[in-house]
Write the C-alpha coordinates for this entry.
Amino acid sequence: MATTQQPLAVVGGGPAGLMAATVLAEAGHRVELFDAMASPGRKLLVAQRGGFNLTHSAPPPEFAGRYGAHQAWFAKILARFSPADLRRWLADMGITTEVGSSGRVFPAEAKASDLLQLWLARLQRAGVQFHPNHRWRDLTPAGEFIFQGPDGSSRTVTPAGAVLALGGASWPQTGSDGAWTSILARHGVAIIPFAPANCGFETPWSATLLSRHEGAPLKNLLLRAPGGQQQVGELVITRYGIEGGGIYPLTPFLREELATTGRAVLTLDLKRDLAESEVRARLAKPRGKNSWSNFLRKQLRLEGAAFSLLRECCSDADFADPARLAARIKCLPITLTNIRPIAEAISSAGGIAMHEIDEHCMLTRLPGVFAAGEMLGWEAPTGGFLLQGAFSTGYCAAQGLLAWLTRQSQAG
Ligand SMILES: Cc1cc2nc3c(=O)[nH]c(=O)nc-3n(C[C@H](O)[C@H](O)[C@H](O)COP(=O)(O)OP(=O)(O)OC[C@H]3O[C@@H](n4cnc5c(N)ncnc54)[C@H](O)[C@@H]3O)c2cc1C
Protein backbone atom coordinates (compact mmCIF):
# COMPACT_ATOMS: atom_id res chain seq x y z
CA MET A 1 0.00 0.00 0.00
CA ALA A 2 1.45 3.37 -1.03
CA THR A 3 1.83 6.23 1.47
CA THR A 4 1.97 9.34 -0.75
CA GLN A 5 -0.78 11.93 -1.16
CA GLN A 6 -3.13 9.30 -2.53
CA PRO A 7 -6.71 9.27 -1.30
CA LEU A 8 -8.00 6.93 1.37
CA ALA A 9 -10.67 4.45 0.31
CA VAL A 10 -13.74 3.46 2.28
CA VAL A 11 -15.53 0.51 0.72
CA GLY A 12 -19.15 0.11 1.84
CA GLY A 13 -21.50 2.96 2.73
CA GLY A 14 -23.42 1.55 5.70
CA PRO A 15 -23.14 3.08 9.19
CA ALA A 16 -19.65 1.61 9.75
CA GLY A 17 -18.29 2.94 6.44
CA LEU A 18 -19.99 6.32 6.78
CA MET A 19 -18.52 6.71 10.27
CA ALA A 20 -15.04 5.78 9.01
CA ALA A 21 -15.36 8.24 6.10
CA THR A 22 -16.46 11.01 8.51
CA VAL A 23 -13.48 10.51 10.83
CA LEU A 24 -10.96 10.31 7.97
CA ALA A 25 -12.32 13.28 6.02
CA GLU A 26 -12.69 15.48 9.12
CA ALA A 27 -9.05 14.70 9.93
CA GLY A 28 -8.21 16.41 6.63
CA HIS A 29 -7.79 13.42 4.29
CA ARG A 30 -9.13 13.04 0.79
CA VAL A 31 -11.65 10.20 1.07
CA GLU A 32 -13.26 8.19 -1.71
CA LEU A 33 -16.29 6.16 -0.67
CA PHE A 34 -17.38 3.24 -2.86
CA ASP A 35 -20.65 1.34 -2.62
CA ALA A 36 -22.21 -1.33 -4.80
CA MET A 37 -25.64 0.28 -4.57
CA ALA A 38 -27.00 3.44 -6.18
CA SER A 39 -27.26 5.10 -2.75
CA PRO A 40 -25.60 4.41 0.62
CA GLY A 41 -27.10 3.40 3.96
CA ARG A 42 -29.90 1.19 2.70
CA LYS A 43 -29.79 -1.18 5.68
CA LEU A 44 -29.67 1.81 8.03
CA LEU A 45 -32.91 2.95 6.40
CA VAL A 46 -34.66 -0.41 6.87
CA ALA A 47 -33.62 -0.40 10.54
CA GLN A 48 -36.45 2.11 10.94
CA ARG A 49 -38.80 -0.89 10.79
CA GLY A 50 -37.48 -2.38 14.02
CA GLY A 51 -37.86 0.89 15.97
CA PHE A 52 -34.44 2.26 14.95
CA ASN A 53 -32.58 1.52 18.16
CA LEU A 54 -29.30 3.38 17.74
CA THR A 55 -27.67 2.14 20.91
CA HIS A 56 -28.56 1.04 24.42
CA SER A 57 -28.23 2.55 27.89
CA ALA A 58 -26.81 -0.60 29.54
CA PRO A 59 -23.71 0.15 31.67
CA PRO A 60 -20.30 -0.65 30.08
CA PRO A 61 -19.65 -4.21 31.36
CA GLU A 62 -23.20 -5.33 30.58
CA PHE A 63 -23.05 -3.57 27.20
CA ALA A 64 -19.81 -5.31 26.21
CA GLY A 65 -21.26 -8.60 27.50
CA ARG A 66 -23.83 -8.49 24.70
CA TYR A 67 -21.03 -9.27 22.22
CA GLY A 68 -20.60 -12.74 23.79
CA ALA A 69 -17.26 -14.37 23.02
CA HIS A 70 -15.85 -11.03 21.79
CA GLN A 71 -16.79 -8.93 24.80
CA ALA A 72 -13.20 -8.26 25.89
CA TRP A 73 -12.32 -6.94 22.42
CA PHE A 74 -15.52 -4.88 22.29
CA ALA A 75 -14.91 -3.43 25.76
CA LYS A 76 -11.79 -1.73 24.30
CA ILE A 77 -13.59 -0.60 21.14
CA LEU A 78 -16.53 0.77 23.11
CA ALA A 79 -14.19 2.62 25.46
CA ARG A 80 -12.89 4.56 22.42
CA PHE A 81 -16.31 5.35 20.97
CA SER A 82 -18.94 4.67 23.61
CA PRO A 83 -22.75 4.82 23.51
CA ALA A 84 -22.45 8.24 25.22
CA ASP A 85 -19.99 9.39 22.52
CA LEU A 86 -22.44 8.23 19.87
CA ARG A 87 -25.30 10.16 21.46
CA ARG A 88 -23.15 13.32 21.65
CA TRP A 89 -22.03 12.83 18.07
CA LEU A 90 -25.66 12.46 16.94
CA ALA A 91 -26.69 15.52 18.97
CA ASP A 92 -23.95 17.48 17.18
CA MET A 93 -25.72 16.65 13.93
CA GLY A 94 -29.06 17.75 15.36
CA ILE A 95 -30.37 14.26 16.21
CA THR A 96 -31.49 14.15 19.84
CA THR A 97 -31.98 10.72 21.34
CA GLU A 98 -33.95 9.35 24.25
CA VAL A 99 -33.93 6.20 26.35
CA GLY A 100 -37.00 3.97 26.25
CA SER A 101 -38.32 1.94 29.17
CA SER A 102 -36.39 -1.12 27.93
CA GLY A 103 -33.11 0.87 27.99
CA ARG A 104 -32.99 1.13 24.19
CA VAL A 105 -31.87 4.46 22.75
CA PHE A 106 -33.68 5.87 19.73
CA PRO A 107 -34.08 9.26 18.06
CA ALA A 108 -36.53 11.53 19.88
CA GLU A 109 -38.10 12.67 16.63
CA ALA A 110 -35.90 12.00 13.64
CA LYS A 111 -36.32 9.06 11.32
CA ALA A 112 -33.50 6.98 9.83
CA SER A 113 -33.92 8.93 6.58
CA ASP A 114 -33.40 12.25 8.43
CA LEU A 115 -30.19 10.96 10.02
CA LEU A 116 -28.90 9.67 6.69
CA GLN A 117 -29.68 12.95 4.94
CA LEU A 118 -27.89 15.05 7.60
CA TRP A 119 -24.95 12.64 7.60
CA LEU A 120 -24.50 12.63 3.82
CA ALA A 121 -24.59 16.45 3.83
CA ARG A 122 -21.87 16.45 6.51
CA LEU A 123 -19.75 14.07 4.43
CA GLN A 124 -20.21 16.26 1.39
CA ARG A 125 -19.08 19.32 3.37
CA ALA A 126 -16.02 17.36 4.51
CA GLY A 127 -15.22 16.68 0.84
CA VAL A 128 -15.89 12.93 0.70
CA GLN A 129 -16.20 11.81 -2.88
CA PHE A 130 -18.94 9.22 -3.24
CA HIS A 131 -18.85 6.54 -5.96
CA PRO A 132 -22.23 4.77 -6.11
CA ASN A 133 -22.77 1.64 -8.19
CA HIS A 134 -19.14 0.64 -7.67
CA ARG A 135 -18.86 -3.00 -6.67
CA TRP A 136 -15.57 -4.06 -5.13
CA ARG A 137 -14.31 -7.02 -7.14
CA ASP A 138 -10.68 -7.62 -6.19
CA LEU A 139 -7.57 -6.55 -4.32
CA THR A 140 -4.21 -7.18 -5.97
CA PRO A 141 -1.06 -8.05 -3.99
CA ALA A 142 0.17 -4.53 -4.92
CA GLY A 143 -2.74 -2.96 -2.99
CA GLU A 144 -4.84 -2.03 -6.04
CA PHE A 145 -8.58 -2.09 -5.42
CA ILE A 146 -10.54 -3.19 -8.49
CA PHE A 147 -14.13 -1.99 -8.78
CA GLN A 148 -16.80 -2.71 -11.32
CA GLY A 149 -18.42 0.61 -12.24
CA PRO A 150 -22.00 1.37 -13.29
CA ASP A 151 -21.36 0.68 -16.97
CA GLY A 152 -19.69 -2.67 -16.17
CA SER A 153 -16.20 -1.29 -16.76
CA SER A 154 -13.35 -1.99 -14.41
CA ARG A 155 -11.78 0.79 -12.34
CA THR A 156 -8.54 0.49 -10.38
CA VAL A 157 -7.79 2.62 -7.32
CA THR A 158 -4.58 2.55 -5.29
CA PRO A 159 -5.36 4.24 -1.99
CA ALA A 160 -2.87 5.09 0.75
CA GLY A 161 -5.01 3.04 3.10
CA ALA A 162 -8.51 1.61 3.22
CA VAL A 163 -11.41 0.83 5.52
CA LEU A 164 -13.61 -2.04 4.41
CA ALA A 165 -17.17 -1.90 5.76
CA LEU A 166 -19.09 -4.25 3.49
CA GLY A 167 -21.65 -5.55 5.97
CA GLY A 168 -22.90 -9.08 6.59
CA ALA A 169 -25.20 -11.23 4.50
CA SER A 170 -28.76 -10.59 5.66
CA TRP A 171 -31.25 -8.53 3.67
CA PRO A 172 -29.12 -8.77 0.48
CA GLN A 173 -31.52 -6.40 -1.30
CA THR A 174 -29.92 -3.60 0.74
CA GLY A 175 -26.53 -4.39 -0.88
CA SER A 176 -25.09 -6.50 1.94
CA ASP A 177 -24.77 -9.80 0.11
CA GLY A 178 -21.54 -11.13 1.64
CA ALA A 179 -20.02 -11.70 -1.81
CA TRP A 180 -16.81 -9.92 -0.71
CA THR A 181 -15.62 -12.93 1.33
CA SER A 182 -13.90 -14.60 -1.64
CA ILE A 183 -11.69 -11.52 -2.20
CA LEU A 184 -10.29 -11.60 1.32
CA ALA A 185 -10.10 -15.41 1.37
CA ARG A 186 -7.77 -15.20 -1.64
CA HIS A 187 -5.43 -13.18 0.59
CA GLY A 188 -5.48 -15.90 3.23
CA VAL A 189 -7.92 -14.08 5.56
CA ALA A 190 -9.93 -16.66 7.55
CA ILE A 191 -13.65 -16.27 6.96
CA ILE A 192 -16.32 -17.82 9.18
CA PRO A 193 -19.31 -18.88 7.05
CA PHE A 194 -22.29 -16.57 7.44
CA ALA A 195 -25.29 -17.73 9.46
CA PRO A 196 -28.60 -16.05 10.31
CA ALA A 197 -28.72 -14.04 13.57
CA ASN A 198 -31.67 -12.30 15.22
CA CYS A 199 -34.08 -14.33 13.14
CA GLY A 200 -37.15 -16.57 13.18
CA PHE A 201 -37.31 -20.34 13.65
CA GLU A 202 -39.53 -22.99 12.13
CA THR A 203 -41.91 -25.35 13.88
CA PRO A 204 -44.85 -27.15 12.28
CA TRP A 205 -48.00 -25.60 13.76
CA SER A 206 -51.40 -27.21 13.24
CA ALA A 207 -53.78 -25.63 10.73
CA THR A 208 -56.16 -24.91 13.64
CA LEU A 209 -53.59 -22.88 15.59
CA LEU A 210 -52.57 -20.93 12.49
CA SER A 211 -56.13 -20.20 11.40
CA ARG A 212 -56.85 -18.64 14.79
CA HIS A 213 -53.56 -17.12 15.87
CA GLU A 214 -51.17 -16.46 12.97
CA GLY A 215 -49.60 -13.08 13.74
CA ALA A 216 -50.66 -13.14 17.42
CA PRO A 217 -48.13 -12.04 20.03
CA LEU A 218 -47.34 -14.12 23.13
CA LYS A 219 -46.31 -11.62 25.79
CA ASN A 220 -44.28 -11.65 28.99
CA LEU A 221 -42.69 -15.05 28.44
CA LEU A 222 -39.57 -16.51 29.95
CA LEU A 223 -37.82 -18.38 27.13
CA ARG A 224 -35.11 -20.97 27.73
CA ALA A 225 -32.72 -22.29 25.08
CA PRO A 226 -30.70 -25.50 25.22
CA GLY A 227 -27.75 -24.92 27.53
CA GLY A 228 -29.88 -22.94 29.99
CA GLN A 229 -29.67 -19.47 28.41
CA GLN A 230 -32.84 -17.58 29.14
CA GLN A 231 -34.58 -14.42 28.07
CA VAL A 232 -37.73 -12.54 28.99
CA GLY A 233 -39.65 -11.21 26.03
CA GLU A 234 -42.36 -11.81 23.53
CA LEU A 235 -42.88 -14.02 20.51
CA VAL A 236 -45.12 -13.86 17.50
CA ILE A 237 -46.76 -16.98 16.04
CA THR A 238 -45.97 -17.00 12.33
CA ARG A 239 -46.96 -19.17 9.41
CA TYR A 240 -43.65 -21.01 9.66
CA GLY A 241 -43.05 -20.96 13.42
CA ILE A 242 -41.93 -18.15 15.70
CA GLU A 243 -40.23 -14.78 15.46
CA GLY A 244 -39.71 -11.87 17.81
CA GLY A 245 -37.60 -9.97 20.31
CA GLY A 246 -37.78 -12.75 22.90
CA ILE A 247 -36.03 -15.27 20.73
CA TYR A 248 -33.44 -13.06 19.02
CA PRO A 249 -30.89 -13.06 21.87
CA LEU A 250 -31.16 -16.87 22.03
CA THR A 251 -30.35 -17.31 18.32
CA PRO A 252 -26.69 -18.39 18.78
CA PHE A 253 -27.64 -21.21 21.17
CA LEU A 254 -30.62 -22.44 19.15
CA ARG A 255 -28.62 -22.21 15.90
CA GLU A 256 -25.82 -24.30 17.37
CA GLU A 257 -28.20 -26.95 18.72
CA LEU A 258 -29.96 -27.17 15.34
CA ALA A 259 -26.62 -27.53 13.55
CA THR A 260 -25.50 -30.26 15.95
CA THR A 261 -28.65 -32.32 16.45
CA GLY A 262 -31.05 -31.21 13.70
CA ARG A 263 -33.59 -29.90 16.23
CA ALA A 264 -33.69 -27.54 19.18
CA VAL A 265 -36.14 -27.49 22.05
CA LEU A 266 -37.13 -24.03 23.25
CA THR A 267 -39.17 -23.97 26.46
CA LEU A 268 -41.65 -21.26 27.37
CA ASP A 269 -42.76 -20.24 30.83
CA LEU A 270 -46.26 -18.92 30.12
CA LYS A 271 -46.77 -17.60 33.69
CA ARG A 272 -43.36 -16.36 34.70
CA ASP A 273 -44.75 -14.22 37.54
CA LEU A 274 -46.25 -17.22 39.37
CA ALA A 275 -44.35 -20.05 41.07
CA GLU A 276 -45.21 -23.53 39.83
CA SER A 277 -46.70 -24.38 43.25
CA GLU A 278 -49.11 -21.43 42.93
CA VAL A 279 -50.09 -22.46 39.38
CA ARG A 280 -50.68 -26.01 40.64
CA ALA A 281 -52.79 -24.78 43.59
CA ARG A 282 -54.98 -22.68 41.29
CA LEU A 283 -55.42 -25.57 38.85
CA ALA A 284 -56.42 -27.90 41.71
CA LYS A 285 -59.56 -25.81 42.34
CA PRO A 286 -62.81 -27.39 41.09
CA ARG A 287 -63.43 -26.60 37.42
CA GLY A 288 -67.19 -27.17 37.69
CA LYS A 289 -68.94 -26.60 34.38
CA ASN A 290 -66.26 -24.25 33.10
CA SER A 291 -64.61 -25.11 29.81
CA TRP A 292 -60.83 -25.39 30.01
CA SER A 293 -60.44 -22.07 28.28
CA ASN A 294 -62.75 -20.35 30.79
CA PHE A 295 -61.13 -22.06 33.73
CA LEU A 296 -57.58 -21.12 32.74
CA ARG A 297 -58.64 -17.58 31.92
CA LYS A 298 -60.28 -17.18 35.35
CA GLN A 299 -57.59 -18.91 37.39
CA LEU A 300 -54.45 -17.80 35.57
CA ARG A 301 -55.44 -15.15 33.01
CA LEU A 302 -54.11 -17.56 30.44
CA GLU A 303 -56.12 -17.08 27.26
CA GLY A 304 -56.13 -16.47 23.52
CA ALA A 305 -53.00 -17.56 21.67
CA ALA A 306 -51.29 -18.70 24.91
CA PHE A 307 -54.20 -21.03 25.71
CA SER A 308 -54.32 -22.42 22.16
CA LEU A 309 -50.56 -22.99 22.24
CA LEU A 310 -50.92 -24.91 25.49
CA ARG A 311 -53.69 -27.01 23.93
CA GLU A 312 -51.51 -27.60 20.86
CA CYS A 313 -48.51 -28.78 22.88
CA CYS A 314 -50.23 -30.78 25.66
CA SER A 315 -52.01 -34.14 25.68
CA ASP A 316 -55.40 -34.88 27.28
CA ALA A 317 -53.46 -36.67 30.03
CA ASP A 318 -51.60 -33.39 30.81
CA PHE A 319 -54.92 -31.57 31.13
CA ALA A 320 -56.30 -34.33 33.40
CA ASP A 321 -53.59 -33.82 36.03
CA PRO A 322 -53.16 -30.34 37.68
CA ALA A 323 -49.53 -31.07 38.60
CA ARG A 324 -48.63 -32.09 35.03
CA LEU A 325 -50.50 -29.17 33.53
CA ALA A 326 -48.82 -26.72 35.94
CA ALA A 327 -45.43 -28.14 34.95
CA ARG A 328 -46.30 -27.65 31.26
CA ILE A 329 -47.47 -24.07 31.78
CA LYS A 330 -44.16 -23.30 33.51
CA CYS A 331 -42.06 -25.19 30.96
CA LEU A 332 -43.78 -25.70 27.62
CA PRO A 333 -41.46 -27.35 25.10
CA ILE A 334 -41.55 -26.18 21.48
CA THR A 335 -39.45 -28.24 19.09
CA LEU A 336 -37.78 -26.06 16.48
CA THR A 337 -36.95 -27.84 13.26
CA ASN A 338 -35.11 -25.17 11.30
CA ILE A 339 -33.73 -21.65 11.34
CA ARG A 340 -35.17 -19.13 8.87
CA PRO A 341 -33.09 -18.15 5.81
CA ILE A 342 -30.32 -15.59 6.28
CA ALA A 343 -31.93 -13.27 3.72
CA GLU A 344 -34.76 -12.64 6.22
CA ALA A 345 -32.58 -12.30 9.31
CA ILE A 346 -32.03 -8.90 10.95
CA SER A 347 -28.29 -9.56 11.06
CA SER A 348 -25.74 -12.25 10.37
CA ALA A 349 -23.11 -14.11 12.33
CA GLY A 350 -19.83 -14.98 10.62
CA GLY A 351 -17.54 -12.94 8.40
CA ILE A 352 -13.89 -12.08 9.03
CA ALA A 353 -12.56 -14.24 11.89
CA MET A 354 -11.81 -11.88 14.77
CA HIS A 355 -8.25 -13.19 15.14
CA GLU A 356 -7.52 -11.69 11.70
CA ILE A 357 -7.76 -8.12 13.04
CA ASP A 358 -5.79 -6.28 15.69
CA GLU A 359 -7.36 -4.07 18.37
CA HIS A 360 -7.43 -1.18 15.88
CA CYS A 361 -9.41 -3.24 13.35
CA MET A 362 -6.46 -3.68 10.95
CA LEU A 363 -6.30 -6.92 8.98
CA THR A 364 -2.94 -8.22 10.13
CA ARG A 365 -2.33 -9.96 6.77
CA LEU A 366 -3.04 -6.75 4.84
CA PRO A 367 -1.26 -3.82 6.53
CA GLY A 368 -3.10 -0.56 5.88
CA VAL A 369 -6.43 -2.32 5.28
CA PHE A 370 -8.90 -2.01 8.14
CA ALA A 371 -12.32 -3.65 8.54
CA ALA A 372 -15.39 -2.55 10.46
CA GLY A 373 -19.05 -3.30 11.11
CA GLU A 374 -21.05 -6.41 10.51
CA MET A 375 -18.47 -7.88 8.12
CA LEU A 376 -16.43 -8.79 11.22
CA GLY A 377 -17.19 -12.12 12.89
CA TRP A 378 -19.11 -10.85 15.93
CA GLU A 379 -22.79 -11.01 16.65
CA ALA A 380 -25.04 -9.22 19.10
CA PRO A 381 -28.75 -9.01 19.85
CA THR A 382 -31.03 -6.31 18.49
CA GLY A 383 -31.81 -3.33 20.71
CA GLY A 384 -29.04 -0.98 19.56
CA PHE A 385 -26.06 -3.30 19.99
CA LEU A 386 -25.72 -3.93 16.24
CA LEU A 387 -25.64 -0.29 15.20
CA GLN A 388 -23.41 0.70 18.13
CA GLY A 389 -21.05 -2.11 17.04
CA ALA A 390 -21.02 -0.72 13.50
CA PHE A 391 -20.50 2.92 14.61
CA SER A 392 -17.77 2.06 17.15
CA THR A 393 -15.79 -0.26 14.87
CA GLY A 394 -16.10 2.26 12.01
CA TYR A 395 -14.71 4.96 14.29
CA CYS A 396 -11.88 2.75 15.62
CA ALA A 397 -10.93 1.48 12.15
CA ALA A 398 -10.61 5.07 10.92
CA GLN A 399 -8.57 6.11 13.97
CA GLY A 400 -6.44 3.01 13.46
CA LEU A 401 -5.82 3.97 9.83
CA LEU A 402 -4.87 7.54 10.83
CA ALA A 403 -2.35 6.23 13.39
CA TRP A 404 -0.97 3.72 10.85
CA LEU A 405 -0.48 6.50 8.25
CA THR A 406 1.40 8.57 10.84
CA ARG A 407 3.67 5.62 11.65
CA GLN A 408 4.26 4.99 7.95
CA SER A 409 5.23 8.59 7.28
CA GLN A 410 7.56 8.65 10.32
CA ALA A 411 9.18 5.41 9.19
CA GLY A 412 9.52 6.62 5.58
C1 LIG B 1 -35.03 -4.91 9.28
C2 LIG B 1 -33.79 -4.52 10.06
C3 LIG B 1 -33.94 -3.77 11.22
C4 LIG B 1 -32.78 -3.43 11.97
N1 LIG B 1 -32.96 -2.69 13.11
C5 LIG B 1 -31.88 -2.39 13.86
C6 LIG B 1 -32.02 -1.60 15.04
O1 LIG B 1 -33.11 -1.09 15.37
N2 LIG B 1 -30.90 -1.39 15.81
C7 LIG B 1 -29.68 -1.91 15.47
O2 LIG B 1 -28.71 -1.73 16.21
N3 LIG B 1 -29.51 -2.59 14.31
C8 LIG B 1 -30.57 -2.84 13.50
N4 LIG B 1 -30.40 -3.54 12.34
C9 LIG B 1 -29.04 -3.98 11.96
C10 LIG B 1 -28.19 -2.83 11.36
O3 LIG B 1 -28.92 -2.15 10.37
C11 LIG B 1 -26.89 -3.42 10.79
O4 LIG B 1 -26.23 -4.16 11.78
C12 LIG B 1 -25.97 -2.31 10.28
O5 LIG B 1 -26.55 -1.63 9.18
C13 LIG B 1 -24.60 -2.88 9.84
O6 LIG B 1 -23.83 -1.80 9.40
P1 LIG B 1 -22.55 -2.03 8.43
O7 LIG B 1 -22.10 -0.66 8.07
O8 LIG B 1 -21.61 -2.96 9.05
O9 LIG B 1 -23.13 -2.77 7.14
P2 LIG B 1 -24.32 -2.42 6.16
O10 LIG B 1 -25.24 -1.42 6.74
O11 LIG B 1 -24.87 -3.74 5.76
O12 LIG B 1 -23.60 -1.70 4.92
C14 LIG B 1 -22.73 -2.41 4.06
C15 LIG B 1 -22.58 -1.63 2.76
O13 LIG B 1 -21.60 -2.29 1.95
C16 LIG B 1 -22.03 -2.29 0.60
N5 LIG B 1 -21.39 -3.41 -0.11
C17 LIG B 1 -21.53 -4.73 0.14
N6 LIG B 1 -20.77 -5.44 -0.71
C18 LIG B 1 -20.13 -4.54 -1.52
C19 LIG B 1 -19.17 -4.65 -2.57
N7 LIG B 1 -18.70 -5.84 -3.00
N8 LIG B 1 -18.70 -3.52 -3.14
C20 LIG B 1 -19.12 -2.28 -2.72
N9 LIG B 1 -20.02 -2.13 -1.72
C21 LIG B 1 -20.52 -3.24 -1.12
C22 LIG B 1 -23.54 -2.41 0.69
O14 LIG B 1 -24.17 -1.94 -0.47
C23 LIG B 1 -23.86 -1.60 1.94
O15 LIG B 1 -24.17 -0.25 1.61
C24 LIG B 1 -31.49 -3.85 11.55
C25 LIG B 1 -31.37 -4.59 10.35
C26 LIG B 1 -32.49 -4.91 9.62
C27 LIG B 1 -32.33 -5.71 8.33
